[in-house]
Amino acid sequence: MSEKTIQEEKRVFMTGNEVVAWAAIAAKADIMYGYPITPQNEIMHYWTRLAPKYNKTFLQTEDELSAGFTTVGGVMAGRKAFTATAGPGNTLMQEPMSMAEMMRLPTVVVIQQRGGPSTATVIYSQQEVTLTTLGGNGEGMRIVYSTANHQELYDYTIKAFNTAWKYRFPTFVLGDGYQAKMREPLTMYKPEERGVQIIEPQAFVGLAGVPGRDRPPAHHRNTYNLEEELYEKVSHDMAEFERIAPEVAEFQAENTDDAELVVVGHGVVFRAVREAVNNLREQGHKVGYFRPVTLRPLPVQQIKELSAGVSKILVVESAYGQLARLFKEVAYGGTAEITHLFRPGIGITATEVEVRVKGLLETGLRKPRLRKASVG
Amino acid sequence: MAPQPKMPRSWRAETKPHKFCPGCGHGIILKFLGEAIDELEIHDKVVFGCDIGCSLLSWDFFNLDSVQTHHGRTIPVMTGIKRARPELICIAYMGDGGGYSIGAQHMVAAAARNEKITAILANNTQYAMTGGQMAPTTLPGQKTETSPYGRDPEVTGYPLQGPEMVSAITPDGAYVARSSIGNLRQLKAALKKALENQINGNGFSFVEALSSCPTNWRTNAKDTWSFIENEMSKQFKVGEIKAPGAVQGEVG
């Protein structure tokens, strides 16, 4: 494989999908298996254009089931294989990712969310949070990075390969159609130049030597004869997942210490949240923001502290409570009142968030009025 | 003690006796696959993949690197390995459900792309692991758990002719044969040729093997053989269907 990748830092202006393709090259990915679906197509388009120049390969499969399973095969063969999908493709991808999860395979999948179910809108939503974090017939032992801008698409695509091969859990980069399609400036760099050590892949099958003579054969399975056997396997992996969770979990927060209200958002919605919170601060309101960068595992400790330390939390998302459900589960036991602004499938502006926060701050000053229950 | 038949070298003695039901055809197919691997001396290059269903019981059958996959997904997993490491010899082992029903799109696409892997499919005319339901290969009139009055082709169609379909859609370089556990010489020759075809880098290699399931067929030894040799072979013609540079219809 060619070692020639991005040689020096470069300021560029490009679409998110193009960024992902370049980041995969920078992360020394070897092979992409993919199936077309909007809005992630250009990841494949750019990858297929870059691939021959960097001695990389590509296979366009017959569907996402196959794209996921060929990725599993590529990873087992010891190559840095990845795929990308969206919406109904993400639904199909849950089957191969269930296999990867149980076999502890370092698969990397980039998801550019779109509205659902099925075709719905092809551009934008945050409705693939539940599916990506907890999909499949397993326990959701995955790592999911939710990006907010193109720089992060570059950074976290590189990071996803390292995280996957380090911890051997399926790793996802969760973007969306806006990030996929719009152009934005960012800095591309060679990971090593910034001290990011690229983790080398290792083969699961096709190992050196004759199996049964020089070494035991590598036997990989997701079939268990007894429930107890499965229990032991899942318990072991889950314990490991929980052990690594605090070191994998990432978040971003500001002005939460003295805040009366904290706004929570992820992905591109976080951009509106941050802008709204900054504006409100300038106007003298005691508000802050909290953004989980990893949606799985969540930054549990920080969410618990937050929910015990502020009086109100507003969860903002372009879905009907997919983040809120995950958040509330972790925040359970805290004293904060958790409320929400849900806009499934559409974007959210900073102004909308500001208006909502002001409304909540005002109601917070009023005394609650009890209404008499009326009968009949 | 009577002398025991010799196991292929590629078999894993620790996992024998194997887990298949008495009278099951899988053990026979896997025996000749093992012998073919032995004779070709490719132990260190083979990756063996099996499906969900009875074929999964072969996950630790061999002294070979093996992957047990999901139902119908063995072909894409092996394709993924082969594309990433072309020097490996990838074998996708499945039943008629995994190849012709739930995994049919993968079979079709891999055949059309001429993926340089070897697919081996045990056809026992029904789903065995799940308790004997109708399969794409169930014979007309055959009783299964989901065709209790016998398969009616007017309602559920005729048995799928897998190798004929694969033969029709594969480009040059493909090797396609139908074999039977009732004709061991031909079965072994076909398996060996299917592997050689991959070693030579020609294209997709596919062997369907007519197999037995006395458990779900509820047959004794005599009726089991009779069903394979008299009933199944009427519907499914045994022989070589396609081979690079060979006269079709001939087989060793």
TrEMBL record, chain A:
Residues annotated as domain Pyruvate flavodoxin/ferredoxin oxidoreductase pyrimidine binding: 23-210
InterPro entries: 2-oxoacid_oxidoreductase (IPR052368), PFOR_II (IPR033412), Pyrv_Fd/Flavodoxin_OxRdtase_N (IPR002880), THDP-binding (IPR029061), Transketo_C/PFOR_II (IPR009014)
Domain Pyruvate:ferredoxin oxidoreductase core intervals: 259-331
Pfam families reported in the protein's UniProt record: PFOR_II, POR_N
GO molecular function, a single term: oxidoreductase activity
Record keywords, A-Z: Oxidoreductase
PANTHER family xref list: SUBUNIT OF PYRUVATE:FLAVODOXIN OXIDOREDUCTASE, SUBUNIT OF PYRUVATE:FLAVODOXIN OXIDOREDUCTASE-RELATED
Protein name per UniProt: 2-oxoglutarate oxidoreductase subunit KorA
EC number(s) given by UniProt: 1.2.-.-
Gene name of this polypeptide: korA_3
Top-level EC class: oxidoreductase
Organism in which the protein naturally occurs: Pelotomaculum schinkii
TrEMBL record, chain B:
Enzyme Commission designation: 1.2.-.-
This protein's record includes keyword Transmembrane: no
Highest taxon of the lineage: Bacteria
Keywords: Oxidoreductase
Pfam families reported in the protein's UniProt record: TPP_enzyme_C
Residues in the signal sequence: none
The Thiamine pyrophosphate enzyme TPP-binding domain, residue ranges: 61-208
InterPro entries per record: 2-oxoacid:Fd_oxidoreductase, THDP-binding, TPP_enzyme_TPP-bd
GO MF entries: oxidoreductase activity, acting on the aldehyde or oxo group of donors, iron-sulfur protein as acceptor; thiamine pyrophosphate binding
Gene3D superfamilies with a match to the protein in the record: 3.40.50.970
Gene Ontology terms: biological process: cellular respiration
Record field: transmembrane: none
SUPFAM superfamilies reported in the protein's UniProt record: Thiamin diphosphate-binding fold (THDP-binding) (SSF52518)
Keyword Oxidoreductase: yes
Protein name per the record: 2-oxoglutarate oxidoreductase subunit KorB
Protein's gene: korB_3
